[in-house]
Structures are given as C-alpha cells and as structure tokens.
C-alpha cells in the first residue's frame, strides 16, 4: 500500500513535468527581429518597402551551399520581416542541396556548381513538366589567407600557389616566393597549408582556378574533394579560417567573408598589378564569364585565367536552383517572391556589405526575367 | 629522518604523518626551479615534473626507512593520488570553461526565443526551438525505448530460457556498442528508401535504438535484486505470474528501473551524430515532431560551432547551448539519484 | 556457451530469482493474462532482435550498391572520392585511424580510470569520495560535442608543449616525430577520447570494486598485508572481469565517437607513421564530415563504411564476452 501511494506521487510528479513542458511550449517566440543590435539594421526600414510579397506565406525549406549562408541569412532577415515567411536555409552543402532538391525535399537549393546532366534528369521527376535551372545569384572571391608574422603584403601567382598547396614549396623563404615579393621579409618558417576536410564547392572552384592558371603545376583532376597529398585539413571555411588564424606559418583558402582579421594574398594574374581579393575584383572577373546554360538555365563558364586589370580570378558563383516549370503550388509564391527580392537591386546591394560580390548587371537582368517566368 | 630510532622490535619504523606533504612540497619546489631554469613555459609540464619527482621521492624515502613492501604501498598510494589529480585537471577545466563561456549569453531571452531570422554572424537569437526539439525527440524516444527495454528485461529475467533468451542477451550486449552514427545511418537508409522528408520523429527512432539496450541492461540488474521470497509468497497465494510481476516485482524495483531510464535519457539527450543526419535543423520553432524539420540542442551546438570560426556571437551561443545541455543532463542525473535514494530496494548490502 | 554460463550464474546467486522453478509453475496454470504478458515481453525481445537484423540488412543493402561501383579496392584504397567518375574510395585509412586512436585512448584511460576507481573506494577520505563520485557520474553524461568544443579550444593549444617535448626526446623512434604542424593528430584524438571515456570506465569500475566482499579484504589485512597488497590480492582479481567489461563500454564509445574527433582532428586520407603529424581519419568522423556534401551514391559509400564500423564493434564485443566468460571461472565475480 505504501508503495502504491508512492507510485501516485511519482505519477503526480510526472504529470507536473509534462504540464510544465507544455507550459514551456507556449512561451517561446520566433520574434527575434526586434532585438536588432546588429549592423545592417539601419538599412532594414529603407529596403523593406520595395519587397513585393505577392501573398507569400508559410515556411520555405531550402538547403545547399554553405558559401552563401551569410548572404542568405541577411536576405532572409529582410524578407521575413517584410513578408512574414519563414525561410529555413540549412547551408548543409551544395551536394546536400542538390540531392535534396532532386528528392523534392526543398523548394530551392543553393549550389556552388551548376547542375550536372544527371541532376537535371533527377529534377525532371520533381518539376512536373519542367526541370531544375541554375540562377547565378551570389558571387564571392575566394581569398587565400595567411598567417606569417611580419609579412603584411604577399603576392603569389598561380604556379607558386599550386606548389604550396601541393607540398612542393615547404618554406616561406623559398626562392619562388622571394622572387614575387622582393621587398618582404620572409621568415624561415615552415608552410602549413590548410584545405577543407569536407567536400566543398569552394575547394572545387579553388582547384579549378589552379588547374586553369597553372596546368603544369596542378595535375589533379579537381572536384569537390581535396585530392593533393600533404597539408592539413579543417572542416568548413570557418574551420580553415580559424586554423589559419591560430597557426604560425599557415595559409588556407576560404570565402572573403571569413577573412576578417587575416591578411590575404594578392594574385599576380599577369595583369598590370597584382590583384587583391576584393568584391569589385570578383565582380570584374564574373563579368568576364559566359552564360553557357541552355533555355532558361543561366549557368556560367568562368574565365579563371583572366588577365583583365583588377579582375580577381579566384571566384565562386553560387546558383539558386529551382524548377522553371512545375514548382509546387504551395511554395511557388514564396519562392518566387524571395528569388525576385534577392535578384533585385536592393537584394544585390546587401551582398557588398557582407563581403560577397554582386552579379554583374548584364547577367542579373537575365536572371530577373527568368524569375518572372517561373511557374 | 634517517637517524630515527626504531622504537620497538614489533613495530617497524614508520614515517611521520606529514611526510607525504613534505615530499609533495619539495618536489613542487624542485619542479618550479627546473621549469624556470629549463625555460619550460607550460605549467602543465611543471605539474608533470612535480608528479614524477613526488612518486620517485616517496619510493626512495620510504624504502630507506620502512622497507620495500611499505615503499611499494606508498608508491601505489601516491600513484593513485597523482592519477586522480592529473585526471581531474582536464575534467575540471571542461566544466569550468563551459560555465565561464556559457554564462556570457545565457539569459531568459536566450532561453525563450528561437534563432528566427538572426544570422549566424550576428548576436541575438536563442535556443528555444532547439530545446523544444530536443525535449520532443528525446521524449518520444523514451516513450518507445523505455517500455520495450523494460519488457525485454522482464522477459530475460522472469521468463527467458533457451535459444531466444540467449540470443537476446547477446544482441543486447552488441547493441550497447552500436556507434550512434550507425543507428542514424540505419534510420536514414529507411528514409531514403521511402523518400521521406526529414522530421523530428526520425531522430527519436534512432535515439530509441540507442536507448533500448541501456534500459534492458540496467532493468535486468534491478529485477535480479528483487528477493525471490517476494515472488514465491505472491505465487503461493495463487496470484497469477503476470500480476505478481506487475504488482510485486516491478513496484519493488521501480526506483532502480526509473534511475536506469533517466540515465539512459541523459545519455541520448547529448547525441549529435544521428540527429545531424535525420532532423535537418530549423532556426524557427516547430512544435510538431511528426512533420517538418526540427532542431535539437546538440545539433544547434554543432551548427553554431561550425559556422563560427572559433569566435564571435555564434561561438558564444554554442557554449551557452552546451551549458544548457549539461544543466539538463545534470538535472536528470540529480532526479535519478533522488529517485534511487527514495525508492532504493533493500539489498542487505 | 558463455552466455548460458552467465545466465545460470546470475540465477544461482542468492538475490536472484530461480527462473526454472517459476517457469514450471507458470506453465502449469496458463491463464490468458499470463499468455498476453509473456507475449508482450517476448515480443519486445524479438523486436530487439528484429531491429538488429534490420540494421545489418539495410546497411548491407545500401553498402552493396556502393561497393559494386567502387573502382578502387574498398579495403586498400587510400582515398575517398565518391564524386569522381568512376568513384574510387577505400577504408584502409579509416580502419587504421579508428584502431590507433582507440588503442591510445584505452592505453591512457584504463589504468587511470582503475586508479581513480581505487582512489574513490579505498584511498580517498569518505567526505571527499562522495562528491567526487557524483561529479564523475555527471561527467560520464556530458555530451561528446561539448568535449569536442573543449578539445578544440583548450586541449589542442596545450598539446604544442607535449608534442615539442616528445619530438625532442622520442622523435628518433619515428612514431613521435613531429613536423611542427598544428597538433591536430591521432595522438590528440586519442588523448581527447581518453578524457572522454575516463568517467565511464571509472564509474563502472568503482561499482565493481565496491562489491568486493569485505571479508576478503579484512582477511588480507589481518594477515598483515599492506593496503596495496590487499588491493592486489583481493580487490583486483575480484574486479577484473568487471573492469574488462567497463573498458569495453569505453572502447565502444571511443570507436564510434564522431563529434569530438571531428572537431580536433585534421583529417587527410593518408597513413602517417608518426602519431604527432596531423592526418588520418576515423570511420565516424569521416561519415560526419563527408555526409553533407555527398550525393546519394556518396551516402551509400559512407553507409558501407558505417557497416564496417558496425562489424568491428561486433567483433570487439564478442571478443570481450569471451574474455569475461573465461576470467569468470577463476575470479568468482558475477559482474
């Protein structure tokens, strides 16, 4: 009998815990916009008025490139406040995004490389009567950051970069580096080259550049996974940036937005002066790109070997991927409104604040036309 | 010390009680001198040198005064102390760092708001959505895992004989060793086959798989502690066996069983890998575990850390969420202890 | 056989029920309630078996899809490129990394954990041992991701000193040579895993040592044994099988640990002779870090590696059970 009374007490305790949890459910809030203590808040009011919502509502699921995560975060903030749509962009990686899109799990995906033929084939099952298309939306310079005490300006060219990341140049006072930097005091320090441990579009574009600009020194086939031997690895761009910051003699590649407190390498492209990793430089390089997509697809072919003055050749273009026809009816208005907003002048303007490169006018105007045609 | 006289033939010479302290102080001093002279920067190295000196010194002094056997005893004593102190350093540092970094942004606002539209790079936002996700996923996992685990344990203890019971016992053991990521992959492969979208309950299923063997193990131990006399008395009164189990055996061991379940909950609440593969993550509040992406505390910590480059707002949030998670686990642990003390079976020991 | 031994052992020990006697009674009077209840409990047992079988079957199925398209040798290839055409990937590096990091972790954690358990049961003042035991209980439940965060922030920078020292004095062995890179290597992983599994092994070992019959210890003391001799002669032999199963619990965690490894290791697909140079990888870490970018085929390949991890865990567990069963005959412990 005593036992049973105790049971009842345990039951009561359990009930208390459950009701407590339920009570907790009622008091949370998604409304985090009010506590606006971040930079960029000032532009909120100004740009809100220009966002057309078109009756968009609900929640939008999206996944893809982590390279554009910070840009999407900024856009989502503006867009959600204007339209009340929740956009859940996971930033799990380009591959994850394309796979999820092909399985019909997300409304749109972000990818650092254009859809492959088999991806397009998979997307046809999801887009009834249409297919997935690439819409270039975010440009970004891939900076090569380094941590060498006493060296604040460093110039490298593609062959030297290739040799450094292939473990063929192992010390900062190597003659090849000295030749490019006659005035710098290069220490006798081992080079610690960091690459991404996960598969990544950033690696893909970085090695594409090395392959295009220094074919004899970079002999690997390229791809999202790092293939060269040697060097050290860290997960995500943030991980690489963190390691470069912490390690003496380190060098690594990541999107410019991660390079905040690091010195970055200027690239000797063969132009009149070495080019620093800047937003303008990236936009200039993207302007050199050709649209190679067919139909409404707008995938670009970048000219990594560009020698144009001021053009920074190591760039990454992130595409948003959606169906040209046959988007799901319940997500179409929100998808369209969001894409329209981020392709608009206001949307592209935010990119510069976040260290991304806007897409050149000639290309983005085509993107806008395509978005209006989405159905 | 060496000139100390033997007081009687029956008692061996023994060192005064303060000897260990004296040797400890001495070796610490020597270590500091060595460290300063040798230019060793890390305090940890000083500590290690002191530890080595302490063990050697103790052996030397004791062997001279008290003999080899006593010396061995003292050395083991000091080794045990040293092992304990060395192990304490990282563990204390872990707790300390988590608390110190965690309290930075941990406030009611943080606990009652989701990330919403706050970008990873900006300050603000909270973990409410992750707490809800964690509570629901772990709760559902418990609803599945605990009954199955307890019933299996009852089968093994009260009924189990023959090949079935033997294989269940064996596979429960094997299941205890399943890497959490493998459980996640299993549910994922099911999801890929059925083309299901990620949702919270998928995470629960993986967690339930991880939970079951732990519950079986602890419940088994508890049921075995129930004195046989109780069962026999009940059966002798003509009570059917199933009622005997429900009304006599289970109530007697309820405290221990609950403790085991609560500890299993604490264990799965911190699992990151399976959740990472299964629930997608979501910066907004989603209270429905059966539909749509959810977040969870370990997943939130991982994502914030991965996007943080080791500093800034996201990094602070990751630590604050870690502190919350540890606090949650600690509360569960305390609850388990409370229940155990409250309903401990009288075992005679 | 070992299983049945254990079962009868447990059944024969004084506190435990004698299943055989009840079984007969239950069968004599088979009431519907009984039948339902037996069905329920047996059903749960069978459910567990089904889950295990399903895990094995599904993983094997997905794994076969990937392995049949692998252009490298799945066992010996030193790369993981599932995105290439043709794909080429192998688990050699992962097997090596997983085994090495776990061995390091066990080599450090087991002796220290046993020492702490002895400290708590036989050396520490009573007032101290209670709270400390509680803290260690708590640490056993600290999520591994937190250990990972701590490892990246505190442990890795502190390894520089140790690595420099090892390289200076033991570098000639080759195992401990260091190229001066960031100390994110197998040794760091092993140490972090050791710290992580230490509380678990300590916990279980402490429970076992507490069960040592007081009589044994008092008898040894009465014969004039020192405290160490008491421990060596009565405590350790009694607790051996318990300590082994505790270690296996820890090893299981170390083998499958994901997040803690992923945050402190600098993974590359090569096997380094030195434990101090960064590189290598483990199964769980590789799955977690490659998973997000992987295509559907890539995921199958990762699942294949998960299957191998599953098999390794199975083998380790089986071996441990054999050892425990054999030891038990000598020690008389019923842990």
Automatic annotation (TrEMBL), chain C:
Family designation: Belongs to the binding-protein-dependent transport system permease family. CysTW subfamily.
Subcellular location: Cell membrane
Region (Disordered): 1-24
Alphabetical keyword list: Cell membrane, Membrane, Phosphate transport, Transmembrane, Transmembrane helix, Transport
Designated name of the protein: Phosphate transport system permease protein
Gene encoding the protein: pstC
Low complexity composition-biased segments: 10-24
Gene3D superfamilies assigned: MetI-like (1.10.3720.10)
Function statement: Part of the binding-protein-dependent transport system for phosphate; probably responsible for the translocation of the substrate across the membrane.
rRNA-binding among keywords: no
Membrane-topology annotation of the record: Multi-pass membrane protein
């Amino acid at each position: 009998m005593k036992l049973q009374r105790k049971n009842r007490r345990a039951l009561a305790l359990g009930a208390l815990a459950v009701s407590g949890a339920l009570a907790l459910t009622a008091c949370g809030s998604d409304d985090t916009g009010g506590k606006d203590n971040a930079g960029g808040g000032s532009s909120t009011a100004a740009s809100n008025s220009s966002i057309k919502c078109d009756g968009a509502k609900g929640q939008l699921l999206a996944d893809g490139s982590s390279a554009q995560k910070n840009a999407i975060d900024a856009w989502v903030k503006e867009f959600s406040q204007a339209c009340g749509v929740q956009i859940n962009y996971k930033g799990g990686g380009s591959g994850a995004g394309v796979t999820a899109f092909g399985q019909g799990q997300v409304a749109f995906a972000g990818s650092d490389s254009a859809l492959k033929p088999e991806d397009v084939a998979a997307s046809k099952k999801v887009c009834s009567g249409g297919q997935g298309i690439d819409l270039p939306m975010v440009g970004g310079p891939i900076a090569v950051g380094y941590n060498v005490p006493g060296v604040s300006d460093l110039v490298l060219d593609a062959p030297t970069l290739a040799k450094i990341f292939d473990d063929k140049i192992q010390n900062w006072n190597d003659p090849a580096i000295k030749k490019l930097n006659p005035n710098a005091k290069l220490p006798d320090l081992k080079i610690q080259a960091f690459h991404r441990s996960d598969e990544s579009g950033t690696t893909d574009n970085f090695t594409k550049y090395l392959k295009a600009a220094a074919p004899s020194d970079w002999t690997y086939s390229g791809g999202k996974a790092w293939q060269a031997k040697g060097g050290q690895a860290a997960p995500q761009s943030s991980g690489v940036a963190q390691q470069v910051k912490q390690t003496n003699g380190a060098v690594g590649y990541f999107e410019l937005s991660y390079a905040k407190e690091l010195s970055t390498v200027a690239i000797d492209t063969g132009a009149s002066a070495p080019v620093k990793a800047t937003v303008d430089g990236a936009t200039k390089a993207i302007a050199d790109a050709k649209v190679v997509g067919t139909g409404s697809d707008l995938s670009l072919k970048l000219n990594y070997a560009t020698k144009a003055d001021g053009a920074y050749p190591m760039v990454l273009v992130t595409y948003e991927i959606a169906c040209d026809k046959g988007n799901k009816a319940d997500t179409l208005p929100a998808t369209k409104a969001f894409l329209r907003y981020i392709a608009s002048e206001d949307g592209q303007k935010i990119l510069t604040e976040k260290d991304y490169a806007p897409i050149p006018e000639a290309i983005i105007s085509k993107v806008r036309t395509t978005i209006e045609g989405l159905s | 010390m060496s000139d100390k006289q033997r007081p009687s033939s029956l008692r061996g010479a023994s060192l005064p009680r303060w000897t260990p302290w004296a040797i400890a102080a001495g070796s610490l001093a020597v270590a500091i001198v060595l460290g300063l002279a040798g230019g060793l920067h890390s305090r940890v190295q000083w500590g290690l040198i002191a530890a080595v000196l302490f063990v050697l010194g103790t052996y030397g002094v004791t062997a001279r005064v008290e003999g080899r056997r006593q010396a061995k005893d003292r050395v083991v004593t000091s080794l045990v102390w040293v092992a304990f102190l060395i192990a304490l350093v990282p563990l204390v540092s872990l707790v300390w760092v988590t608390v110190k970094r965690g309290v930075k942004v941990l406030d009611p606002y943080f606990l009652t708001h989701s990330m919403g539209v706050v970008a990873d790079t900006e300050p603000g936002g909270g973990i409410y959505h992750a707490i809800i996700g964690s509570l629901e996923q772990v709760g559902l996992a418990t609803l599945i895992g605990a009954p199955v685990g307890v019933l299996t344990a009852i089968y093994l203890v009260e009924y189990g004989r023959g090949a079935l019971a033997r294989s269940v016992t064996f596979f429960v053991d094997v299941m205890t060793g399943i890497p959490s990521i493998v459980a996640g992959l299993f549910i994922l492969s099911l999801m890929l086959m059925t083309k299901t979208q990620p949702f919270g309950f998928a995470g629960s299923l993986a967690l339930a798989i991880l939970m079951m063997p732990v519950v079986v193990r602890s419940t088994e131990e508890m049921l075995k502690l129930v004195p046989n006399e109780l069962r026999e008395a009940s059966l002798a009164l003509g009570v059917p066996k199933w009622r005997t189990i429900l009304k006599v055996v289970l109530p007697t061991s309820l405290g221990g069983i609950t403790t085991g379940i609560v500890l299993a909950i604490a264990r799965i609440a911190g699992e990151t890998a399976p959740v990472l593969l299964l629930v997608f993550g979501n910066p907004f509040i989603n209270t429905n575990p059966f539909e749509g992406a959810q977040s969870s505390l370990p997943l939130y910590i991982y994502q914030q850390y991965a996007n943080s480059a080791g500093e800034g707002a996201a990094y602070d949030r990751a630590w604050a969420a870690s502190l919350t998670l540890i606090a949650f686990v600690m509360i569960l642990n305390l609850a388990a202890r409370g229940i155990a003390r409250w309903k401990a079976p009288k075992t005679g020991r | 056989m070992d299983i049945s031994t254990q079962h009868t052992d447990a059944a024969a020990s004084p506190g435990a029920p004698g299943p055989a006697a009840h079984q007969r009674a239950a069968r004599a009077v088979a009431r519907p309630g009984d039948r339902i209840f037996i069905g329920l409990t047996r059903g749960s047992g069978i459910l567990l078996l089904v889950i295990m079988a399903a895990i094995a079957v599904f993983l094997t199925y997905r794994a076969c899809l990937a392995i049949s398209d692998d252009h490298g040798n799945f066992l010996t290839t030193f790369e993981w490129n599932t995105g290439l055409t043709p794909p080429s990937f192998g688990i050699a590096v992962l097997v090596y990394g997983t085994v090495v990091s776990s061995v390091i972790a066990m080599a450090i954690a087991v002796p220290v954990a046993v020492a702490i358990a002895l400290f708590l049961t036989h050396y520490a003042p009573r007032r101290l041992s209670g709270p400390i035991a509680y803290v260690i209980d708590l640490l056993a439940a600290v999520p591994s991701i937190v250990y990972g965060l701590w490892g990246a922030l505190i442990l890795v920078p502190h390894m520089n000193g140790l690595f420099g020292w090892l390289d200076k004095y033991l570098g000639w062995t080759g195992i401990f040579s260091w190229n001066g890179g960031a100390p994110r290597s197998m040794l760091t992983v092993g140490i972090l895993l050791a710290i992580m599994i230490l509380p678990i092994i300590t916990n279980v070992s402490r429970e076992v040592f507490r069960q040592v019959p007081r009589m044994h210890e008092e008898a040894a003391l009465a014969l004039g044994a020192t405290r160490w001799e008491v421990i060596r002669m009565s405590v350790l032999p009694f607790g051996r099988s318990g300590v082994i199963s505790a270690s296996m619990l820890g090893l299981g965690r170390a083998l499958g640990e994901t997040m803690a490894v992923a945050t402190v290791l600098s993974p590359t697909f090569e096997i380094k002779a030195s434990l101090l140079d960064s590189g290598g990888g483990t199964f769980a870490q590789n799955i977690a870090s490659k998973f997000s970018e992987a295509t559907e085929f890539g995921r199958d390949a990762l699942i294949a590696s998960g299957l191998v991890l599953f098999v390794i865990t199975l083998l380790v567990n089986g071996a441990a059970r054999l050892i425990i069963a054999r030891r038990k005959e000598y020690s008389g412990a019923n842990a």
